[in-house]
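Quick look at the format.
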Amino acid sequence: DCPRFTRHLEAAYLDVMERHWRGEAPCHQSVPPQPATSPSSAFERQPRVVPPTTPPQDIPSPAEPSHNPPAMPTPVSELVAKALQHHRQGDLSRAEELYSRILERHPTHPDALHLRGVLACQRGQHAAGVAFITRAIEANPPQAPYFLNRGIALRDLQRPQEALEDFEHAIRLDPGNAAALRNRGIALRDLGRLEEGLASHDHAIRLLPHDAETYFNRGNLLQDLRRHEEALADFDRAILHNPSHAVAFNNRGNVLYTLNRPEEALMSYTEAVRLKTDFVNAWINRGKLQFELSR
């Protein structure tokens, strides 16, 4: 089949190039015979890869390689680009296969290590993600995205102090990195440093004023600080920039309930479960409020 043939051809090409780099004479490369394909299956339409939905809060999306790596032969660069393309399309298995092939030949390739770590985090394998990204950091001059993504993985591992240190390292390398500032604010909230966390979110919003996640997270902080009207305004802004943000609707309902506006709260909970039908907390909040209103 075509994908298998492509993989064999890539491997053969890479082996030929490596012989050339070592000064060895080229040798014949063979591709294993492929099973015959019937005409009916040869022209079957391949299933369309559905782009992944917006990742959950704090799960990083793969980014472009963030630096100019040491001069690499074109085949390796092409493999990185191809792996990144599969990664962005949500084909994590194919992306992982290509990252692994690159790392077999170039174990310290920083972009492959970093993106392999991001992929592990997307699968919930946060400890493995930290290990891969740490290797990328050790193999390359410091890059802000590496520290940002490792910090996110550390926070998911309930290691907020280490996460905070990575976010601050990312900000030192790139002071205009709004995502690093937002995640720094989240880590500060985890550590109970609410006012500092609020200031970090304020800074992120000045840099990126249309980011729904930053308004959402600042709303959570304001709710912790019992500044409910301001929290409500931030949840409204989050929904304005992302009308399908079910968690923002749920938290908006919580604030409205606190402000003694139960009918509006019920409408917000109802919208949350409409957007995310398996949202257990929103169903519970809605059911409890309906019971209260029916008494």
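Next, a different chain entirely:
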Amino acid sequence: ARFSLSRRSAARGAFAFLYPAGRAEKGMKTLYIDCGMGCAGDMLTGALLELLPDGAGFLERMNAALAGRAVISAAGVEKCGIRCTQVTVLIDGESEEADAHHHHHHGHHSHAGVKDIMAFIDSVELPEEVKCNVKAVYELLARAEGSVHGRDIENIHFHEVGSIDALADVLSVCCLMHELAPERVVASAVNVGSGQVRCAHGLLPVPAPATELLLRGVPVYSGAVQSELCTPTGAALLRRFVQDFGPMPLMRVAQAGYGAGKKDFEAANLVRVLLGESVAPEYLHGCAHSHPHAHE
């Protein structure tokens, strides 16, 4: 069912009264990305979208920027009983995800080369910072694809991430990060999934070679889910925006967002993001002394 993103955002913040302002010195605005079920562009878009006060307005602006090349929509769904946002990109009224494996873009829509993608980015009416980030994400993707296939960047044809729906995901995440403007971004270790994934070149091991290369040096693991959980697009977005990978940092959470994947597993197939402020260790020390009987 369709739903009001602004109403859901308000509901997420309904417990703000529990954490009155001014209890401690303002910390660094921090975003934490929980990648316990991997990361894909559409899932990250849905999660970040829930943090905005006017998600519907954001979608209108994105669709205007795409100028009819694609239409982004969002709907409320449940994953293992958790309400979350599922983002869909329609091209000519059809979702490429319908014939995709999990949330990787393996459909039949047209694909583009590096020059085509960069020309499109230059033509979009968005802030320069957003364009810079989108180009940086695609440069990461191009270098990874080039290394895997043994080609120069200029000759890379994006089989998996050059479709318009993938570009819409990257544009959306870069715009959302621009509007949310976190000062620090931290992500958990990344669950890449396991098994095999069907790509343009045939069956490949999970993580796909490009994904593995993009996550080189990042803490990753493979759980029990037999599916591709982290896509090249998701990996490139994490590589671009995340400064540190590890456990959730010491922070005071103000908002949470949940972005749904298309498939259903025994575990909730979603990306969770937490937005709040960093907390200095000495603040916790002070709390312990000011509430000596809190745990009695």
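Residues 12 and 231 are 28 Å apart (CA to CA).

See the schema section for token definitions.
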